[in-house]
Structure formats: C-alpha cells, structure tokens
Design brief:
This protein is mainly β and about 180 residues long. The strands form three sheets. It has a four-stranded antiparallel β-sheet, with no helix packed on it. A three-stranded antiparallel β-sheet has the order 7-3-9. A two-stranded antiparallel ribbon has the order 4-5. Its main location: other. InterPro entries: Adhesion_dom_fimbrial_sf, Adhesion_dom_sf, Bact_Fimbrial_Adh_Pro, FimA-like.
Length: about 180
C-alpha cells in the first residue's frame, strides 16, 4: 500500500513537469563598485526654472528655446576610479525621448521638455542606460565632481501659451 501511494505521488510529480517547461532564458549581469560618489548635500532636489519665452519662439514642430544650465554636484568620490554620470530613470513623465508637460493649471500646449548633455546634444530618455542616453560623463579626478546638463522647451507643433512643469528622477552610475 505504501509503495502504491509513493508510485502515485511520483507519477503526479512527473505528470506535472510540463507545467515547469520554459520558453527562454534571461541572463542577468551587473557590477557592484566601490565607487561611491554622493549627491552633494543641499542639491538632491534640483529646481530648474526655464525662462519665459513667447509662442513665436516655439511656433513649429521641433523648435527649441530657453536652454537652461543645471548642475548635479557630487561629493565624497574616490578619485582616479573611472567616470561618473547620471542615468535619467524611466517614468510616467517620459514620452519618447523627452519629458511631457504635466502642468494641470493652464498648461502650455504642444510643449515638452528636452534634456541636453554638456555638449548641448539631446539626451534620449527612452534609452535604458546612461551612455545610450548620451548623458554627460565626467572622470572622477577629485573628491568632488560636477555634471552639467541643460533643460529646454521643445515644440511638438505650434505652441500655445501656458505653464510648463515636469519632473524626472536620476541615479548616479559609474563606467
């Protein structure tokens, strides 16, 4: 009787093995580094105020205006240990490569926010790595590092007057 119960249990397990079949494999790799720059105290929450511009500056698709510098300041870095850069995280404020206007009070129409690296080249927020985004990279030559970026208005069509607001999260990464 015990043998029969054991046989039935084994048969049930073997019969269910197809439930555990797989169609593919995902290989995951990563690296944990001892490079530990920290965002400088007091600059963790940056506010970038774009200048007021007229709709004439953004009267057709793909026009830009109001490029404004902002700097992510890092401290307590290990000098001579590679490069550091910001990775702009995916989120619900990103559409394609830019930030959508999330203003809920008299929002400007047909306007998004575009981020640029320190060479004034667009950062592609749709990419899944900082280097693919064309983010600014800086060598860690000292205990403090500054990463310069720009934000600007981007017209998706002729802009209409109104408020522009958006946000994006970032993570400091190393290469």
């Amino acid at each position: 009787m015990k043998f029969q119960k054991l046989f039935l249990a084994v048969a049930a397990i073997v019969g269910c093995s197809s439930v555990f079949a797989f169609d593919g494999t995902i290989n995951i790799t990563g690296k944990v580094t001892d490079q530990t720059c920290q965002v400088k105290t007091g600059t963790e929450q940056l506010s970038v105020r774009l200048p007021e511009v007229g709709t004439a500056s953004l009267n057709a698709a793909n026009q830009t205006a109001g490029a404004t510098l902002f700097t992510i300041k890092l401290q307590n870095c290990n000098p001579g240990n590679g490069n550091v850069l910001a990775y702009f995280e995916p989120g619900n404020t990103i559409v394609g490569s830019r930030l959508i206007n999330t203003s809920t009070n008299n929002a400007a129409g047909n306007v998004e926010v575009q981020l640029l690296n320190n060479n004034h080249q667009p950062i592609d927020l749709s990419q899944n790595s900082a280097s693919a985004q064309s983010s600014t990279s800086a060598p860690v030559n000292g205990t403090e590092v500054s990463l310069d970026y720009y934000a600007q208005y981007f017209a998706t069509a002729a802009a209409t007057a109104g408020e522009v607001t958006s946000t994006v999260n970032y993570t400091i990464v190393y290469n």
